């Protein structure tokens, strides 16, 4: 297959504009999953473990399928970066989904996530396999080193924060408690902060607009959710730490 430059540019702008639109939508309304689900009697709910697996695994299968069925260009840098992308979704699909104790998700949310993850997996995979070019010098480039450092730092924050949240409740419990430890001592959305750092690190490591547009969309989609959680905690718990910020330590 060849690189379809026009399609890549179009998808870049779709992701960026969709991110802006989603950001403003969440300024007025919660995305109805997790603690913000209401009226579960009127919609089909998918169990949490199944929901997370079904909606995350396309982001792994799509680029993996492209690698297997298509004769894309191969280089150490390209393989490393595409493998890094897939590594995140292996963890989310096969480890996080298995361990989660979250609430069921509405069926339409799962379907929407499947569509997005499939499109994004094909988008990122196609760019890496058929468009991106990395020579051997890229392996010592400061952008790759800094980007991968941020990626794995963000991933560690995200996994550790999920571990803290998961252990706040027993299986089947739906009560909410104040998260403590790790970056939760500084922000209410530590898991979201970690994932945003992760994908901007990936964008730096790849030095590509497709990765940046995805990182931007991620920030616009889960960043506001950190502020929703922060407001939720402040309203629910009188003893919630007032110095704790919503998303970025010591700033906001």
Short synopsis of the structure:
The chain is an all-alpha fold and 252 residues long.
Q: How are the elements arranged and paired?
A:
Blueprint: H1 5-26, E1 45-46, H2 48-56, H3 58-69, H4 76-99, E2 105-106, H5 107-131, H6 142-166, H7 190-206, H8 209-236
Antiparallel strand pairs: 1-2
Helix pairs in contact: 1-8, 2-4, 2-5, 3-4, 3-5, 4-5, 6-7, 7-8
Query: Over the alpha carbons, how many angstroms does the gyration radius reach?
Result: 19 Å
Q: How do the SSEs run, as a string of H and E?
A: HEHHHEHHHH
Count of helical stretches:
8
Principal-axis shape equals globular
| Helix content percent band | 55-70%
> Which structural class best describes the helix and strand composition?
mainly alpha
Strand residue percentage: under 5%
Mean of pLDDT: 92
Contiguous uncertain segments of 5+ residues: none
Distance between the termini: 45 Å
Oligomer: single chain
Q: Please list the strands of the largest sheet in the order they lie side by side.
A: 1-2
Q: What's the story with the biggest beta sheet?
A: 2 strands, antiparallel
Strand tally is 2
Question: Which key phrases capture this entry?
Answer:
252 residues, mainly alpha, two-stranded antiparallel sheet, 8 helices, 2% strand
């Amino acid at each position: 297959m060849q690189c379809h430059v026009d399609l890549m540019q179009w998808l870049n702008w779709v992701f960026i504009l969709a991110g802006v639109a989603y950001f403003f939508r969440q300024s007025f309304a919660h995305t109805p999953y997790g603690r913000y689900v209401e009226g579960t009697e009127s919609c089909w709910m998918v169990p949490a473990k199944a929901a997370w697996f079904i909606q995350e695994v396309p982001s792994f299968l799509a680029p993996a399928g492209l690698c297997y069925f298509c004769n894309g260009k191969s280089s150490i840098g390209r393989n490393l970066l595409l493998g890094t992308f897939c590594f995140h979704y292996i963890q989310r699909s096969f480890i996080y989904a298995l361990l989660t104790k979250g609430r069921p998700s509405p069926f339409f949310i799962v379907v929407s996530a499947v569509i997005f993850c499939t499109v994004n997996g094909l988008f990122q995979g196609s760019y890496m396999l058929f468009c991106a070019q990395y020579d051997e010098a890229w392996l010592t480039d400061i952008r790759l080193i800094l980007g991968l450092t941020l990626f794995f730092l963000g991933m560690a924050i995200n996994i550790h924060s999920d571990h803290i949240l998961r252990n706040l409740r027993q299986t089947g419990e739906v009560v909410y408690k104040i998260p403590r430890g790790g970056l939760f001592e500084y922000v209410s959305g530590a898991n979201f902060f970690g994932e945003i750092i992760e994908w901007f690190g990936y964008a730096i490591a790849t030095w590509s607009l497709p990765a940046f547009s995805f990182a931007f969309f991620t920030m616009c989609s889960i960043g506001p959710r950190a502020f929703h959680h922060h407001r939720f905690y402040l309203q629910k718990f009188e003893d919630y730490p007032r110095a704790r910020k919503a998303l970025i330590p010591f700033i906001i």
